[in-house]
Amino acid sequence: MTDTTGTDSPKKGRLICIGTGIRYSEQITIVSKTYLQRADIVFGVMQNSLIDDWIMDNNPNYINMQKFYGQGKSRHQTYIEMVDAILVEVRAGKDVCCALYGHPGMYACIAHLAIGRAKEEGFAAKMEPGISAEDCLFADLGLDPGYFGCQSFEATHLLFYKHTVDPGTVLILWQISLAGEHTLKQFETTQKNLQLTVEFLSQWYDLEYEVIIYEAAVLPEDTPRIERIPLKDLPNAELEMHSTLVILPKEQAEFNQEMLTKFGITEADLGN
Length: 272
Known about the structure:
Oligomer: single chain
Mean pLDDT: 91
Structural class: alpha/beta
Shape: globular
Strand order of the largest sheet: 3-2-4-1-5
Number of helices: 9
Low-confidence stretches: none
Largest sheet: 5 strands, parallel
Strand content: 15-25%
Number of strands: 10
Helix content: 25-40%
Radius of gyration: 21 Å
């Protein structure tokens, strides 16, 4: 396999961060699987023990990094410890693979931190993409993000920063089960935080407006969770760490008449 890390570093150690996809063993790319199998050592964070077993079948030198998590322990500290462990092996001159479920660069800071530090120290490092939860979401819900447009936020980020929601687009809120959880020490939010989330969203959507709780299928025999509920019922919904909130467009986006005039076209020219 051709090495495409794009570095002239003389140091021997190398880091490749790969995505294994969401569905167990079925969505990893050929190139990522090759890196996984050929690595001297593999570090991983998976969402299911069966996937851990599958990785070990492909490379017995596997370190499951779930052990770094702890109740009441800051996830920020956990991620730093994971990166430290990865870099120890890179510095030892090993060909290191970091395997993360889904896409390694989406809602996963470990790969970004590890690659950044490896490059700073003069080692070859790169990321290989994987099929993400967002890819599965578009397929399972039959959505084309280019048709309506799409706004995608981590739920707490949307709540804590001055973003404006456009109800004429698809709105995707990741990690809705952690909405408003800012300590990085808990693995679930509270009913109060979810009620505040509903109040925030009610600026653009009626309380009776239908929203979707989505969870991608992980195992071959699983089916995706696509549960439609009124927005007002979100605080009482059963949410998992991998639950995502999807809100379909409430209305058609308003035409920008100024730009239509500049382009010399009318609404009729656009087939509406």
